[in-house]
Amino acid sequence: MAALGDPAAATRAPGDEEGGARSGADLTLEHVTKEFGAFTAVDDLELTIPSGSFFALLGPSGCGKTTTLRMVAGLEHPTSGRVLIGGRDVTRTRAHERPVNTVFQSYALFPHLSVVENVAFGLRRRRAPDPLGKARDALELVELPHLADRRPAQLSGGQQQRVALARAIVNNPAVLLLDEPLGALDLKLRRQMQVELKRIQTEVGLTFVHVTHDQEEAMTMADTVAVMNAGRIEQMGSPAELYELPRTAFVANFLGQSNLLRGTVVENGAATLGVDVDGRRVRVPTARSVSTTGTVLVGVRPEKLHLLRAGDQAPESCNVLGPGRVTDVSFSGVSTQYQVHVPGLGTLGVFVQNILGGAGAALGEEVHLACAIKHTFALDGAEDATSGAVRLDARDV
Questions:
Q1: What domains are defined for the chain?
Q2: What pTM, to 2 d.p., does this model score?
């Protein structure tokens, strides 16, 4: 019986018990475009996902991430371009002939079969040896061996999700596709499953491609995140890189929250830029600036802002904005979120961690805002500062 992490089994095409060479495989998209009539869902996409990595395609509804996943799975064919798995061109290969399995948000378990028979179903169809033994190994991996004889209706949503994952992994795909797999779970269970999915991916060493609109999911689990917008990748990198140093307004707004202030560069130094923001001088590290001349968008994350009440001193090496007035206070447990209106700049968000407890700024109170220069960034001023807002009426493609 081949182990789940058996390098000789992991890249086998369905039905091939002897082929394959390693666990997981590179996934490459070469100039992939998908058009539906006059609508371009995916636009000249180039992407390489290394073998054994946990990769996330992140974006709002309608950005093209689901269409991209369906082209990898063989459920859609590109209008142009190529899809390669492990160096093999599978662009025109049928879905069932690809070394790929998909876990969907709807688990699609067979209600009349036991858990172990659900997991063994694909193995039986391709007449793999010892299907029940392999299925029980997969249930061990997802920590559900004690539920092998139950029916899906007797399981919780999280347990059903694990069974669906075991059913996909047991076939040793070269690439495992995850299409919003945690969307049907409640918040607490979803967070638990994020940790479990990462553990399982690390243990089996398969190439995971996770499609999601949930920023927390992508940042919690993925080694690399690609933020998609209008069929193209806006920026790709580690979660920390994308969050700390976004390169477009869309990424800054969609991945977390950002305060973006329009200003004009008036000093262009080797280390820092001097930016005039409505008559206030703000400094930005040159190395953290997409544009270094003309109009720019100065950005700062809400948790990087210090809220200064009367008598408070600003920390060293900070930009200071204000005065402003607190227009909203929202306590969320680990932090308190403030909205502060600064005349000429608009309303800025501020997250203050609740470390010491006690009273914070009150609604209507006058405050100043300070941010360390090293935490600011500057984007192209020609961009829409509101880009990245999620459209609730968009169609997911």
A1: 7-243 (3.40.50.300), 257-380 (2.40.50.140)
A2: 0.85
